[in-house]
């Protein structure tokens, strides 16, 4: 029986047959020949997830000084039940991700339907024809015990398989540009040996044709500035040899705004890989610090957000202080310190640990417990308490639920027998919690609620007027604000309407009562 791949919106797509695979190879070859006649280089993007799919259209949208596309892009996604649906969806001109950035669907329409220089495929033949392969496949860290990130590790098996697949197909002069965030040492000690081994099996002389491997990590911020965070941002890069560095620089210069956001070349890929995980470890530590002070502020009647803004006025040294919240989510801050810590022993055989970074991950992973403490200050026993959680993505105005702190919040509330309803305007299906329905209408979500948690700062939630929310509830719920999503004026209105309000980092609420 033929298996289907199901998109988040419920559409089903039949996985390709052997006959369709033959036709697809012919189509790839035909398209590539046509594009080469137009003078365009061929790029294959390996992995069409949150980074890869938008990176692919940014590459396809790049133009020369005459306004002509520089590249044709084959976006490659494996024909698996889990993710094959992205291929037919993308080829209709529709992005496989949901975002508040209006430029995302515009780019897909322009590159798929108008320029016709981007196409998704599942066929490995695309790699045989590529001049450049951009690697955007997922590489996660596993944290087997909640709140014990020091025991985390990285399973490189799927990543190794992806690299081996490239080694079997790419030409010797093809540049592999790794964008995936990887543990330090990966390009030199994992990717390079695999490609050399596969080249040797194919009879390629690796002394005359050494693999061309570079690393330039993405700094993607899904949300309102999704596309700009790729195109208009400072990039760091390096390569395992000089030719790799040169080719990477040429490619990045073609597709990014390097005039306003100059490239930074580091001495080797170890340095480039270290830069990414250190950068995100710094941010994770920054956030962990603010949570400690937020709890302090709550106890002494201080609004930590006003304090934070006062400190941030000192530009150049303190203006990057981050904020406390429900917790830390997404694909970077939750795992990058773990990747670095694991690599010390597993890749470099160094007997040491990154104590501060790992401690920060533990604080951030367990941060949702503080929101539960706020709820329990009014409802010590959570059994049968009706709780509406507004927002399950990890970031405002985005539909990405990867490592969302709402997962931890809802999981623990369910374990304590609370009655939880979840709402998110950007999430169609919560794959990490398949048993939890994501409501699309706000009123049935909050109706009769004892507690309403503003978990994520989606614009829709920030625009809710207290009177409207209470009318939908038909109760006087406890309001929980996880990160300054509700202004003091609205807090006053909730209090006047008979609600109690608790906020992460806001110890001054009692002073708002007239």
Structure in a nutshell:
This protein has 19 helices and 18 strands. With 514 residues, the chain is an alpha/beta fold.
Describe this structure in words.
- This protein has two domains: 17-137 and 147-227, NAD(P)-binding Rossmann-like Domain (Rossmann fold), CATH 3.40.50; 278-514, 3-Layer(aba) Sandwich (Rossmann fold), CATH 3.40.50.720.
- The strands form four sheets. It has an eight-stranded mixed sheet, sandwiched between helices. Strands 15-14-13-16-17-18 form a six-stranded parallel sheet, sandwiched between helices.
- The protein is 40% helix and 13% strand.
- The chain has helices at 18-37, 52-61, 86-90, 103-114, 125-128, 157-169, 186-201, 228-231, 242-255, 269-299, 304-312, 336-346, 355-365, 368-376, 405-415, 442-446, 459-462, 466-473, 488-496, and strands at residues 4-6, 12-14, 41-46, 71-76, 118-121, 132-135, 141-142, 153-154, 175-178, 212-215, 236-239, 264-265, 386-390, 419-423, 438-439, 451-454, 478-481, 501-503.
- The N and C termini lie far apart (68 Å).
- It is an alpha/beta fold.
- Helix 15 (405-415) links the parallel strand 13 and strand 14.
- Helix 6 packs across helix 7, helix 10 crosses helix 12 (336-346) and helix 10 packs across helix 13.
- The longest helix is centred in the middle third of the chain and has 31 residues, at 269-299.
- The chain contains 19 helices and 18 strands.
- The mean pLDDT is 94.
């Amino acid at each position: 029986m033929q298996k289907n791949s199901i998109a988040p919106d419920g559409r089903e797509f039949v996985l390709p047959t052997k006959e369709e695979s033959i036709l697809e190879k012919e189509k790839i070859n035909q398209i590539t020949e046509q594009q080469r006649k137009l003078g365009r280089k061929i790029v294959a993007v390996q992995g069409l997830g949150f980074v890869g799919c938008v990176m692919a259209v940014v590459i396809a949208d790049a133009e020369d000084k005459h306004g002509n596309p520089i590249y044709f892009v084959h976006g490659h996604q494996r024909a698996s039940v889990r993710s094959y649906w992205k291929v037919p969806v993308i080829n209709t001109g529709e992005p496989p991700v949901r975002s508040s950035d209006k430029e995302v669907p515009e780019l897909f329409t322009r590159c798929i339907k108008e320029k016709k220089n981007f196409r998704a495929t599942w066929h490995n033949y695309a790699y045989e024809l590529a001049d450049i392969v951009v690697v955007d496949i997922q590489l996660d860290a596993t944290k087997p015990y909640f709140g014990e990130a020091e025991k985390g590790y990285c399973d490189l098996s799927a990543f190794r398989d992806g690299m081996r697949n490239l080694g079997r197909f790419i030409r010797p002069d093809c540049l592999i540009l790794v964008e995936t965030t990887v543990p330090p040492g990966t390009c030199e000690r994992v990717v390079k040996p695999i490609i050399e081994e596969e080249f040797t099996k194919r009879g390629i002389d690796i002394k005359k044709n050494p693999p061309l491997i570079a690393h330039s990590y993405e700094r993607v911020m899904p949300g309102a500035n999704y596309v700009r965070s790729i195109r208009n941002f400072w990039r760091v890069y390096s390569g395992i040899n000089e030719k790799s560095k040169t080719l990477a620089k040429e490619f990045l210069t073609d597709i990014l705004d390097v005039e306003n956001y100059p490239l930074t070349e580091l001495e080797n890929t170890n340095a480039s890989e270290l830069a990414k995980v250190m950068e995100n470890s710094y941010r994770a530590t920054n956030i962990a610090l603010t949570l400690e002070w937020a709890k302090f502020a709550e106890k002494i009647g201080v609004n930590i957000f006003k304090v934070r803004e006062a400190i941030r006025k000192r530009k150049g040294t303190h203006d990057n202080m981050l904020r406390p919240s429900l917790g830390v989510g997404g694909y970077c801050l939750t795992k990058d310190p773990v990747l670095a810590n694991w690599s010390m022993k597993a890749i470099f055989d160094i007997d040491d640990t990154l104590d501060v970074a790992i401690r920060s991950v533990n604080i951030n992973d367990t941060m949702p417990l503080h929101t539960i403490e706020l709820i329990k200050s009014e409802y010590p026993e959570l059994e049968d308490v009706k709780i509406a959680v507004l927002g399950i993505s990890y970031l405002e105005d985005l539909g990405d639920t990867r490592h969302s702190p709402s997962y931890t919040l809802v999981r623990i509330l369910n374990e304590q027998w609370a009655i939880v309803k979840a709402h998110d305007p950007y999430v169609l299906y919560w794959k990490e919690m398949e048993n939890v329905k994501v409501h699309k209408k706000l009123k049935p979500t909050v109706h009769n609620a004892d507690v309403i948690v503003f978990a994520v700062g989606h614009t829709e939630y920030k625009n809710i007027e207290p009177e409207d929310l209470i009318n939908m509830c038909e109760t006087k719920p406890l309001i929980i604000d996880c990160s300054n999503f509700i202004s003091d004026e609205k807090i006053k209105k909730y209090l006047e309407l008979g609600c109690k309000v608790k906020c992460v980092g806001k110890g001054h609420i009692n002073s708002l009562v007239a």
